[in-house]
Amino acid sequence: MECPRCHAQIPGTAHFCPECGADRRTGDWARRRSFAAKPDEPVASFALVSSIMPLGAGQRPQTYRIALTIALVVALVAAIFGAMPIAVLVAAFAVPIVYVVYMYDVNLWEDEPLPVTGLAFALTGVLALVWTVVWTLLRGPVSFATPSFDGSGSAAPALGTFLLVAVLVPVVGEAIRQLGPVLLARRPQFDDLMDGLTFGVISGVAYATFDTLVRHWALLTGGLQDADPGLWVSLIFLEGFVKPLLMGTATGLACAEFSGLGRGYDGFTPRYLRAVVLAVAANVAYQAGTYLFSFLGSATLGVLLSILWGLLVLAILVLRLRVVLHTGLMEAALEHAARTAGVGPEGELAFCTRCEMPLQPGAAFCAACGTAVAATTNVHRPKVPSGAGAAAAPRAGEETVALPRPAGGATATDDPGRTGHDGEEQA
Q1: Measuring CA to CA, how many Å separate 1 from each of 4, 17, 30, 427?
Q2: Any long-range contacts for 383-392 (C-beta under 8 Å, 24+ apart)?
Q3: For 420, phi and psi rounded to 5 degrees?
């Protein structure tokens, strides 16, 4: 049978189209019930590992889950016995180390591992260190059970401190987290959506690492603390695991939209700006919640509520991340199908101007969104030179669309408002 999405021939025993990945048995051609990176999971799922580590999800997902679990257990056990220097160090570096190992494990950017790690992790880490020192000095000391928690122990929160912690810090922090990934994603070899996503996640967890080290420096250098398992365990789980995953997911979303769909990176488009606003809003919500919960009177209760609030924000981000990731993987499948069908490995692909998915050669409709190609392409009749024969003119009632771009030239269908995409389509 023929796939209605990419028009490839599907074997009778196949569950999914081998070219575009469409689900043949259920008719769910967009595969909303089957996540592209891990088909046994739906797109709308809270599975964290397959969301932030998609390239390893189908091979060794348990490896990364086990690594994160071991790090979590070590940090929590140290916190139970009051060994906060060990607990803070393990919690601060656990998620970044696992993610860097993941990057090398799946051979991402094996030709340039140091520039990638440097810009995505080290640059963000240094800037985060400086910024966290600055804003904690502006905030001033706190008289709370945990010296680096944002509460002041007073009867009510202060407006100035709230605006600093819940508004200024998330805005500047997100700008810092975007810097390295955007510089990397502008390079031709790193302009894929998956690259932008990965750069954003590692930048987010790097920021969280140095933020934790600065804000909890008193615990890191204070030696053993009085036994208070409820407080210390909750604090370590919040600062060492909930916070980096939330920041990494939010920044990864925005950087993925910067890379965008189709050929080349999309750049500073309205879609990217909306994603940055979403990332900032998520961090504002998280920071505001942790600040306000610290005034409940009980340190343990405040941290526990902060954990629940952070997990709620993280869950929303993960759902959105999976949609973006799934869309990108399905686009890659359509691009592969288009090249296999005749465009070739070096040929120029045409992209739908509505959804930015690759168009199949000779297609009258976009296989992803169903939009008619003629409705999204500048249709024109070619000029017939004076004296040309009748064979040069189109037949009556026939329209011709823009021809492929000649070498060194441009066509009337080029869209100057798009970055890295071609608006032409063959007749």
Answers
A1: 9, 10, 18, 26
A2: none
A3: 80, 10
Contacts of 297 (CB under 8 A, 6+ apart): none
CA-based end-to-end distance of the chain: 26
CA 406 to chain centre: 36
Q: What are phi and psi of 12, to 5 degrees?
A: -60, -25
Neighbours of 312 (CB within 10 A): 13
Residues 6+ apart with CB under 8 A from 402: 377, 378, 379, 380, 411, 412, 413, 423, 424, 425
What are the residue boundaries of the structural domains of the chain, listed by start? 59-338, 348-384+396-427
Enclosing H/E stretch for 64: helix 61-80
User: What is the predicted pLDDT for the residue at 415?
Assistant: 40
**Tokens representing 114?**
């140091």
Q: Three-class SS of residue 38?
A: strand
DSSP string computed for 330-365: HHHHHHHHHIIIII-TTSPPPB-TTT-PBPPTT-SB
Residue carrying the six token digits 């599975």: 47
CA distances from 42 to 15, 136, 259 (A): 16, 42, 24
Looking up tokens 């008619």, which residue turns up? 372
Q: Count of H helices and E strands in the chain?
A: 14, 0
Instruction: Give the Cα separation of 151 and 23 in Å (integer).
Output: 51
> Based on C-alpha coordinates, what's the Rg of the chain?
26
Question: Is 25's pLDDT higher than 50?
Answer: yes
294 burial (CB, 10 Å; 0-12 / 13-18 / 19+) is buried
pLDDT tops 60 at residue 396? no
CB-CB contact of 75 with 91 (8 Å): yes
> Does 288 score more than 70 pLDDT?
yes
- For residues 400 and 427, the answer to whether their CB atoms sit within 8 Å is yes
253's tokens? 């979303």
pLDDT in tens, 105-153: 765 655 666 667 777 788 999 999 999 999 999 887 664 445 455 554 4
Distance CA 51, CA 64 (A): 12
Provide the residue count of the chain: 427
In sequence order, the 6+-apart residues with CB closer than 8 A to the CB of 10 are 1, 2, 3, 17, 18, 24
